[in-house]
């Protein structure tokens, strides 16, 4: 049996930090793309035309917006759990999101609502 060839990357310590070295180039390996942030360290959200009428745009997510977003995600998670439990007892409820998805007025109302929330987040960050 033959030994496995040496790996392409190795980890070394430089200045009390671990650094991944690409053995083919001899330089530090290219880091994966980090989450986009502004110079202050806040995350940046890039919106889509799918849900934002003014998209694509970049919105800086400050601490106040982040806290509000966390609460909103928690609320949506609770709503999803309740919907799942109700759909166990009433399976026809599973058709409701599909039917609503094909209604142009419902989609337009959701996009208007989402754009308004994103405008609030953009103004809060400014």
Describe the structure.
The structure is a single chain. The protein has 126 residues and is α+β, with helices and mostly antiparallel strands. It has one domain. Helix content is 44%, strand content 16%. The protein is built from 3 helices and 4 strands, in the order ββββααα. It has helices at residues 63-89, 95-101, 104-125; strands at residues 9-14, 17-22, 43-46, 58-61. The strands form 2 sheets. It has a two-stranded antiparallel ribbon. It has a two-stranded antiparallel sheet with strand order 3-4. A hairpin with a 2-residue loop joins strand 1 (9-14) and strand 2. The chain is extended, with a radius of gyration of 23 Å. The N and C termini lie far apart (64 Å).
Strand content: 15-25%
**Helix content, binned percent:** 40-55%
Q: Report the major sheet.
A: 2 strands, antiparallel
> What is the terminal-to-terminal distance?
64 Å
**Low-pLDDT segments:** none
Overall average pLDDT: 86
Features:
126 residues; alpha+beta; two-stranded antiparallel ribbon; two-stranded antiparallel sheet; 3 helices; 4 strands
Sequence-ordered SSE layout with sheet pairings:
Blueprint: E1 9-14, E2 17-22, E3 43-46, E4 58-61, H1 63-89, H2 95-101, H3 104-125
Antiparallel strand pairs: 1-2, 3-4
In short, what is this structure?
Helix content is 44%, strand content 16%. The chain is an alpha+beta fold and 126 residues long.
